[in-house]
Amino acid sequence: MVPPVVSALLAFVVALFRSRRSMQLEILALRHQLAVYQRSIRRPRIQPADRFLWAWLARLWSGWQDALPVVQPRTIVAWQQKRFRAYWRRLSQGGTPGRPTVAKELRELIRRISQANPAWDSPRIVGELQKLGIHVAKSTVEKYRVRHRKPPSPTWKAFLNNHVKDLVSMDFFVVPTVTYQVLFVLVILAHERRRIVHCNVTEHPTAAWTAQQVVDAFGSDSFSSSCKSRVLTSH
Prior knowledge:
By secondary structure, the protein is mainly alpha-helical.
């Protein structure tokens, strides 16, 4: 059985050598038969070759929509768009998708270098590999290098439990007197038992006076001169 596309092309070649009167009568007969088929067949079966023929005619012939009683013109446009997407999909998927794979030897080399030098970061490893004539991206080194687990840092609660015996706090508060004076009260508090270590009052607090109060609270032996200088500069 001859495909419809082939028969249509053969009919086109034969029509080039026929008279105009004979062609008009054949067109009339074919249009009548087509109308009969349209009344009896709701949806004709369209083959891929038929789609290709009408997509080709739509590109070459401006009056293709007037001679299209089988399907809607927007269907032909959809066929063209589908062929266009399929064509570019084949071009884009012709090669191997994604980045080229990294050789196993290079992956093992990156792991050995990072494992032998825990302090080296990725840019340092990239530089060392370039000295060996191996050019690799930083992202590749990040992916394959060995990440050394850091020891967990103590929590704030653990820090307080370990150093609560050595923690003290100091602060001033003011007391107005009956004679409209303002007295500054210094309180040094130990965190271990929340006990008051030292307390003193002055009308004119200075850095030297505050440092001396710390010395009086903890003794000159335990309170070094360096700590005293820091107290003087902080105030």
